Amino acid sequence: MKTKLRLGVIGAGAVVREIYQHLYFHSRYSPLLEISAVADPDEGCRSWFGELAKLPANRRFADYREMLAQVELDAVQVNTPDHLHRGPTLEALAAGLDVVVPKPAAATIQDAHAMVRAAQKAGRFLGVDFHKREDPRIKEAEARFQSGRYGVFQAGVFYMLDKLLVADPNRSPRFFASPDFAERNSPVSFLTVHMADALMKIVRLVPAQVRATGYSHKLPSLRPRAVKGWDLVDTEIRFTTGAVAHVLTGWALPDTAWATTVQSGRLICSDGLLDLELDRPGLREFHAEGLSEVNPLFRNFEKDGRVTGYGISSPGRLYEQILAGRNGQLSAAERQAADEALTLGFYTTLVLEAAEHSLAQGRKLEAGATLGTTVDLRELAVRQIGADAACEYRLE
Ligand SMILES: NC(=O)c1ccc[n+]([C@@H]2O[C@H](COP(=O)([O-])OP(=O)(O)OC[C@H]3O[C@@H](n4cnc5c(N)ncnc54)[C@H](O)[C@@H]3O)[C@@H](O)[C@H]2O)c1
What is the pTM of this model? Predict the structure, then answer.
């Protein structure tokens, strides 16, 4: 029986520094993983991770294809930017490896669909790390909602708002390494996907239409470097049942906010209402640096050096499933749940791509808002992946 997975890490940037290094080296999941190689074209990232993982020079690659060809692996984690998840994922699956990617599955449904298909064809495991799925409050909401306790979902509002320091390239040190972070990424690709995924996990509905409204006031006013990007985006998701949700995300909150990310959600249903106080996990700090809400549920640096929290257990559980699969111990029900389009993040990528289309086709007002068009998700899916595939995802 296998007790460890030989893992190749493709891409060792910010998400590895902030989250996955703790998973790999300081978590209860670390004994399941043997970090066998790294591939990253960026010399700085490659060396930083190579040193951390104590990898010899012949286990550090600029090109992931060379890593796949030269190192015996069981799985890879593809931590490249969203639009570069597809290539390494497809090649790793074709080489017989299991694959984990951080959220979102991909930037487009063409990519997400190709990844789903490739995993099916290879008979291998594909897992997407949406860590909010492991947040105990989301899990409890999911179980309660799906028990029928609140009746029919009618409307919802979710928000996830970062402090300006996350997007501001003028801040020193910068929060994200690249000065054009907030131009290359949008609040939709970075934040909306978390909330849209959590919402759809709870209500298990298929989205039918998306319309986004973007606001751009604060970011263009930043000095000396202005940012051509969104302060805030409202993504309206209409489901096939007629239910509607607004997911509001952005990164222009004053830095005095009580948390780096101020976030919450509310679901209104025919027989009840659910409030998710996501940014009030119960540990409040008064300190010379200010007043802040600490979220030990997400990432908790414990006294003995271990790192716990749902940011770690979410990808950790994916590796447990991979190991169980490799040992023939993943039940048919678990395998089926892992292979569902919802689990694989297909609908979340659909919402993401549609919101970006909506804004791109929208009408820009002089007052700084852009009124996006309504995007029909079935039409978008048929255009991008064809009618047959759209039907397979129940976009009929
Ligand atoms: N779980 C989360 O909450 C979370 C948080 C941040 C980022 N992410 C996701 O993680 C992914 C990476 O984001 P990031 O913030 O770390 O980005 P980043 O730009 O900091 O890092 C990406 C890394 O991938 C490397 N790379 C690019 N092309 C490559 C290739 N062909 N082969 C190997 N490596 C390559 C880059 O050199 C860089 O080191 C994205 O999909 C992002 O959305 C998830």
Answer: 0.96
